[in-house]
Structures are given as C-alpha cells and as structure tokens.
Amino acid sequence: MLTIKNLHVKLEEEDKVILKGVDLTVDDGKVHAIMGPNGSGKSTLSYVLSGRDGYEVTDGTAELDGADLLAMEPEERAAAGLFLAFQYPVEIPGVGNMTFLRTAVNAQRKARGEPELSAADFLKEVRAKAKSLKIDAEMLKRPVNVGFSGGEKKRNEILQMAMLEPKMCILDETDSGLDVDAMKLVAEGVNALRGKGRSFLVITHYQRLLDHIQPDVVHIMADGRIVKTGGPELALEVETNGYAGILEETA
Amino acid sequence: MGVPQAKLDATQARLAALSLPKGANWAAVARQDALSRVQAMGLPGRRDEYWKYTNPATLVQPDAPPAAVLETREPPIFAEIDRLKIVFVDGVFDAAASDDLDRSGLEIELLTDATSTDIHWARDLYGVLEARGQSPVHRPLAALNSAFANQGVVIRVTGAAACPVSLVYLRRSENSDAVIHHVIRVEEGADLTLLEDGPASARFNQVIEVDVADGGSFHHVRAQGRDHERRAATHIFARLGRESTFKSFTLSVNGALTRNEAVIELTGDNAVAHVAGAAVGDGDFHHDDTVFVTHDAVACESRQVFKKVLRNGATGVFQGKILVKADAQKTDGYQISQSLLLDEDAQFLAKPELEIYADDVACSHGSTSGAIDEDALFYLRSRGVPQAQAQDLLVLAFLAEAIDEIEDPSIAADILSRLDGWLKRHHH
Predict the structure, then answer these.
(1) Chain A contacts to B (CB-CB under 8 A)
(2) Would the CB atoms of A73 and B381 count as touching at under 8 Å?
(3) Which pLDDT tens digit goes with each residue over B83-109?
(4) Rounded to the nearest 5°, which phi and psi values hold at A150?
C-alpha cells in the first residue's frame, strides 16, 4: 500500500533537516502506529505525504500502490486515496460543512472518472455516517469546523474519512485535545473503517489512543528516523518506560 | 471659502457641454437650484479630501472617455425573475424593449413626463433628498445630475408591488454619456423591490432618490455592468420613516472606475437600513464605495457590509461613516469593510468613520485586508478539491456576509451565478 524509502526532508525556508532517511512499508489492511517524542518528525512526515507547502524533499521516495506521491498535487494525492486527519482541523467560515463534503466527494469522483453522487444519494449517505459518529444535522449545516469543540472537529475529520473512503489514512495526533469519551467515539469510527483495501498510519505521542485502535505494527521515531519497530507491546513499553529508555537502547 | 480657480475652470468646461432640460415651473426651479449648488461647490477635484482615493478627472471632464462595448453571450441577469422591465439604451428610455408601464399597478412615469406636469408628487422629492445629502459633505456630481438629468423614472408605490421593477441599462455606443435620475416614493406600509443591471453607458452619472414612509419597505439589488472600460458615479439618497426598511446590495464585476455613494438618513424611530456590496476586480479596476449613514431617530439599526476581491493591480476604496445625532439614542450601528487581495499588486484603501453624539448607542466597525488563507486552501485540497475550485469556494465564503444581505433567494442565486462566471473566467 504505502512504501516510503530513505525519505529526507528539510524545511524550505530554513536549512533545517527534519526527516533523515525514513523507511516504512504499510501493507494492505494493516494499522501501523508511529510514536515518538515531540520534534521527532512525526507530523512533518504526515504533511510531506499529503503535500503541504514549505517542505523540500532532498532524497528518497514515497509511493501509494506504486504511484509516486511526491510528484502529485495535494488534491491528486487525495484522489489517489490518501487521507490526512489533521491534528488541528482548519476552520473555514462561510463554507458550509455539507457543501464542503459534497464538493470534496464529487471532486474525487470526477478525478477518478466516476459519476458524481446525486444530491439525494449524498444526503442519505452523509446522514447515516454522521449518525454513527454522533454528528447531528446542526453540525452538518454549520460552516466547516467553525465553533466546533475539539471533539467535534475530530469527529468531523472521521466523517470526512468515512465519506471519502480513502485507501491510506494518516491520523495525525488525533487524540490530542480529546477526553476519554470523545476518543472512544473517534476510535469506534476508525475501527469501523478497518478492513481489506484500507490501511492506517496512526501518529501519536501517547499510548492511550492505541488502547482503542489496536495497531498491527508500532514504530518509534526519533530525530527524523524510525529507530525501532515492533508489535503492540512496543507501545506498552513506551507507556511504562517513556521514550528515554528506548532511545538509549537504540543509540 | 472660495472655490479655487482650477476647479471653477473645470466646472465651467463641464457645464458648457450641457443645457438645462425644459419642464414645468417647479422642475425648472429645482434644476436651476441644483445648478447653483454645482456652481457654488465646484465639481470634484483631486485635492478634495472626499476624493483622496479616487481620481474624479474622468468623471468631470467634458466628454466621456470612450469605452469598448462588451460582447458577451452570457444570459442577462434576472431574466428568469418575474419583473416589470424598463429598458434604457445608452441612457435613453427604450419603450419598445420595455414592458407596459401601466401593467404593474404601480404609478410609474418617465422623468420627462413627471417633470413636465405642473402638479406632481415628485416635486417634493426631486433634487430635495439630493440637496439634503449635500451636508456635511459635498456631492457635486449628484447636484450636476439633478440639474441636467432628463432620463429616468418616477415610481410611487402604495401597496405591495406585485413584482420587482427592473431597470435594465444596455449600451451600444462607445461614447455614450448618460445622466439618469430616478425618484421613488414608498408610501406608508408599502413595499417595493428595485432591480438594476447593465453598464448603461461609457460614462454613467446616476442619482436615485428614495423616500420610504412609515412602515414602508424598499429592497434594491443592483448588478453593475461588467464592461471593462466603463465609468460610473452613482448616488442613492434615502430618507427613512418610522419602522421602515431600506436594503440595498450592489454587485460590481469589473469596470475601470466606479464610485457608488449611498447617503441614508434614518429620520423615524425603529427604522432599519442595510447597505452592502460585493466587488470583484482584475487589473484596470477601481471601485469606490462611499457611504454616509445618519441616525437622527431613536432605536434605528444600520449595517454597512462591503467586500472586495482584488487582483492584478485592481484598487478598492471604502469610505464609510456612521453619524449618530444627539437624540438618536439606542442606535445599533455596524460597519465592516474587507478586502481579499489575490496577489501583491492589488490594493485596498479604507476610511471607516464613526461620529457619535448620543450616549446610549452600540456601534461597531472593522476593516481588514488579507490574502487567501493558505491553511484553509490546503485543507480543501487535501480533501481532493482542485486548487482553482478551492480558491473559488474561499472567495465566495469571503463574500458571503455581503451576499447574505439579499433577502430573496432567487435574486441571490442570480447574483451568485454572475460571480461564478467571473471566478471561472479568472482561473489561471
């Protein structure tokens, strides 16, 4: 599904190297977690994969099902099946949530040569999916993320994921700013989407999200590299010993 | 205070090209008075404080600068709306292209007919509201209009108008120089919607005087012609009675020079005045909204909402004032002017003003200028929305607060589709 090789990235505006050779392969249907201390490059990895401005790839490759992600515009990556759930979802006053969702769904369908979803079919689908995430009709009518609580914003991200049906989902610190109940709701939404044809990369600082979204593989990232890879037990080790112990042993 | 010689000369040069229309005695007096006002004030010059951001030279010079006529296959705006259509071509009424004025159940007459009638209700308004609006700031182009206009309509509404009155300004000549003056009286409890669209002429000088009696309601939606080289100076003078409503929205798409002035007097308690505008310009585009709202009664509400999208050297101007007189307690005044600069060549000049003499009022104002929100743009693109479409969504979102001032959804839809056309023509 996702194949990253030797990825080197620096900030465009300053000469600061953030990623120093990331190698990562996520197979179809798998859930990988990336954990690491602040400043290790986790979020940068998610931005570079989704095509945000401000980063320069100096070496390496990133492919989604064999297609060169780094050569694509952000919207092309989305149409190819990549989805980033933002750590800080953006508020867009004046653009209705429904208009936004429908524009996005149909733009992706158009890019893939599929027929657009009719207004009626779209409405039916969005209502059903919103209900399972406890997103009410009022939230759908409001401008994108404006006045949403932290939990509402994250649920809205998962709703977009459910509507867009991406192949490769990246969750960037989705647990930040969530209480336990909100986190459970988000995790349920994600778990409902797990299955063949869809993989996840869950970026998180803490182990607690991984209690709810059980990963197949856990990676530890530090100083722009993946320094250790293991099973779910690795997340528990972080929880018990902190990052310091693991980093010492890999140094 | 004398008028500088250069200004006198410019004024005389302009007046020499014009002659006062003939009419009934009262109209001749009104026109002569207006001419005296022009002569006393002099036409606007570059040094006038009120014209600091907009060069009036081409609006004042004797002949209209030529402007190419836009050829377009775009369907006319408001075409699907049930309306009474009154057509002017190069500033001259075209009976054949217009609907039957008697059909409407409204009192509608041509200005020439009304001003030739010895006893006419328009006497109490023609040049009268304009003259009231000359203080504290001079508006000489409006006085010039009152003196020389011989085209326009006078409308009196006593009930709820069956459909909107739609003024359509077509143009065929590259040199037309139109002066049009409308007078509207909305009687007690009556209701009128006025639509306007089209470029009118190479140079367009327009005045609308609107008197809304107690409990009356006036809605105005205007789509100015998008001929790139046209020039226009328009004025709306409105006087509002008790519990009356005035709402005006203007869409301006291109145009080398546009100055839209709105001068609104709230004279009856609990009156409501909203004036809004959306302007989008590319390149050789200069758009000026100048608004003066006077609160002279208790518990009135006023809103000014102006949004401009500018690119490629386009200039936007906003001069907006809320004046609250000493006895206008419980005033609720709001003013916002914002520009979205799509590149670094565009500029927005704003002069928001509040002048308040009452002590129990709520007035707020704000003015901002900014670029497209890159975070929002990336967010939309990351969901698969192509860049051009994402930018359009953000532009329309920026304009939404102004467009929301249009109450009728089908009229708003027409305005949005005109905007959509501009956005599509301006994709890179």
Answers:
(1) 50-53, 73-75, 77-79, 83-84, 86, 89-95, 99-100, 103-105, 107-108, 111, 143, 160, 164
(2) yes
(3) 999 999 999 999 999 999 887 678 999
(4) -55, -45
Identity of the residue numbered A177: G
Mean pLDDT over each residue of chain A, to the nearest integer: 93
**Which segments of chain A does DSSP mark as H helices, in order?**
42-50, 74-79, 97-111, 119-132, 137-141, 150-164, 180-193, 208-212, 233-250
Q: Give pLDDT < 50 ranges for chain A.
A: none
Question: What's the rounded Cα separation, in Å, for the pair A7 and A13?
Answer: 19
Which of A69, A73, A75 to mutate: most B Cβ within 10 Å? A75
Q: pLDDT tens digit string along B291-330?
A: 999 999 999 999 999 999 999 999 999 999 999 999 999 9
Set of chain A residues whose Cβ sits within 8 Å of the Cβ of B390:
75
**Closest Cα in chain B to A94:** B397
Q: Which domain holds residue B210?
A: 5-371
Is the torsion defined by CA of A131, A134, A140, A144 positive or negative?
Answer: negative
Residue B382: inside a domain: no
Report ipTM (2 d.p.).
Answer: 0.96
> How many domains does chain B fold into?
1
Q: What are phi and psi of A240, to 5 degrees?
A: -80, -50
Please indicate, yes or no, if residue B220 is contained in any of the structural domains.
Answer: yes
User: How does DSSP classify residue B294?
Assistant: E
Rounded to the nearest angstrom, the minimum Cα separation between B387 and chain A is: 8
Cα–Cα distance measured from residue A56 to residue A184, given in angstroms and rounded to the nearest whole number: 36
Instruction: Please report whether residue B313 resides in a domain.
Output: yes
> What percentage of residues in chain B have a pLDDT greater than 70?
99
Q: Which of B338, B373, B374, B381 is most worth mutating to test chain A (most A CB atoms within 10 A of its CB)?
A: B381
* Residue A240 contacts residue A207 (beta carbons within 8 Å): no
Look at phi and psi of residue A133 and say left if phi exceeds 0, alpha if psi is from -120 to 50, else beta.
Answer: alpha
User: Which residues from chain A sit within 8 angstroms of residue B386, using beta carbons?
Assistant: 73, 75, 107, 111
Give me the residue from A90, A93, A107 closest to B385, CB to CB. Answer: A107
Counted across chains A and B, CB pairs separated by less than 8 A come out at 79
The pLDDT score that the predictor gives to residue B207 is 98
Domains with residue ranges and CATH for chain A: 2-90+166-250 (3.40.50.300)
Q: Which residue has the higher pLDDT, B263 or B226?
A: B263
SS3 A75: helix
The answer to whether residue B294 sits within a structural domain is yes
Closest residue of B to A79, CA-based? B384
What 3-state class would DSSP assign to A54? Answer: coil
Rounded to whole angstroms, what are the CA distances from A66 to A63, A110, A169, A199, B113? 5, 21, 16, 15, 78
d(CA B159, CA B263): 25
